[in-house]
Design a protein that fits this description.
The structure is a homodimer.
Chain A: E1 2-10, H1 27-39, E2 46-47, E3 56-66, H2 72-82, E4 87-95, E5 105-115, E6 129-130, H3 137-144, E7 149-152, E8 167-178, E9 181-188, H4 195-207, H5 216-222, E10 237-244
Parallel strand pairs in A: 3-10, 5-6
Antiparallel strand pairs in A: 1-3, 1-4, 2-3, 5-9, 5-10, 7-8, 8-9
Helix pairs in contact in A: 1-2, 3-4
């Protein structure tokens, strides 16, 4: 039995998220079907984790076991030939049989894109969150650093989703500007349900002057969802990279 | 009579280009209609020039005359409220009555985006040209400099379109890399029909090893369309900026 690791890009628009569910278009199910079409096998595709409806991925990782003799060089192209254009296998590699895309994942990097121009973008409209009110970028830059490190992010989690602990470590929390866009990047050992979108929403509140940068630590420590900002919409969010040892 | 200059972004997908034509969806006609809806006047919108079907714009410029008393601050938002999401007025400004978006244009900047990864992109698939065969970026960088300066670009022009002269000056010809993307940027006093897409196609031939960088000058001097590369598709092309004195 071979064990195959896939790196996957997808445009989340139109999908009900990563996870397989009956009668709803989902990414996991579409890829499983494409693999079945080229290998003739019913396989189980294990993702590094779910992404919500509408969320994009530049580098989702998933693995599956197969007996196919299609060479690893040809495998991703063969799967792509069966997939909708909004899902692309960027690469395939043969991994150790013990590799498990979810259990072995050591961290993830997420990106959130905000278009901060008055009018928004015609071209990238489905790929970023439009905030027409001018944000104070300097204050957001100051605030984002408070998210770095190990914290109990209980207040930055949507209800639902079972977690043994709500403690997570954000290794790197960065913000950058590219003309009319503000880009938030968070790298951490793991993220709670909606955590990136709530952090982004809290940073928007900082940019709007509703929250001071030095209040962030108090908000985190309060563990109170009401104190944090709102959950920004999914179409600005990208799973950028998944890390393994 | 007020004279208004608009800066416009659009996603060219689905449009039959800038120019107004009966029974075909076009950008000029859509904006004229939106302006009529908010001012009650039939206006004539003068663009800096046409863009072909499928070509995008980040900064197209157009102007129109109006008697409306809507303030310049509110005008672009009012027009946007009547437009499809794939067209956005980025800004509106009041200009001198003599200003003419086409006649006063002193130059343009175009961008062509090539995705040079094997699989292409799921997210940006309609916004770049996919070339799966690995291109030699160093050679393309060497070649692009030969396009700078004043040349007779007769060989880099599609048939059709009337021009008194085919001599044009490219002030700046630049190429850059952003992960799997190769981005070509050309700034010049004017461009012939399909000229940017033919230059990009010729640079792809250089990247494929079909043309040597030092052959570019000979190809330009030959004025022979057959010697240049093929015309790349419109969905990789962006009118990035239009210049005025």
């Amino acid at each position: 039995m071979r064990n195959i690791k896939l790196t996957i890009e997808y445009d989340g628009k139109g999908f009900n998220g990563w996870q397989k569910q009956p009668n709803k278009l989902n990414i996991q199910g579409e890829i499983e079907l494409a693999i079945e079409q080229i290998t003739g096998e019913k396989i189980e595709l294990i993702g590094s984790g779910r992404t919500d409806a509408g969320v994009h991925a530049l580098g989702q990782v998933a693995s599956f076991k197969t007996n196919t003799d299609i060479s690893i060089e040809k495998l991703s192209m063969a799967i792509n030939s069966q997939l909708k254009k909004s899902i692309v296998i960027k690469s395939a590699e043969e991994v150790n049989n013990n590799f498990h895309a979810r259990y072995n994942c050591t961290g993830k990097r997420y990106r959130y894109i905000i278009n901060n121009s008055r009018s928004g973008s015609a071209i990238y409209r489905g790929l970023e969150y439009h905030m027409p009110v001018k944000l104070d970028y300097g204050k957001m830059k100051e605030a984002i650093k408070y998210f770095e490190g190990e914290h109990d992010f209980k207040g930055f989690k949507a209800t639902g989703g079972k977690n043994k602990t709500t403690v997570r470590t954000i290794h790197k929390a960065e913000i950058s500007k590219d003309n009319e866009r503000i880009i938030i990047e968070l790298t951490g050992d793991g993220f709670l349900y909606n955590m990136v979108r709530i952090i982004a929403g809290t940073l928007v509140d900082v940019g709007l002057g509703k929250i001071n940068p030095d209040e962030i630590s108090t908000i985190i420590d309060s563990k109170d969802r009401e104190k944090a900002g709102k959950t920004l919409p999914p179409h600005g969010l990208y799973l950028a990279e998944v890390y393994y040892e």
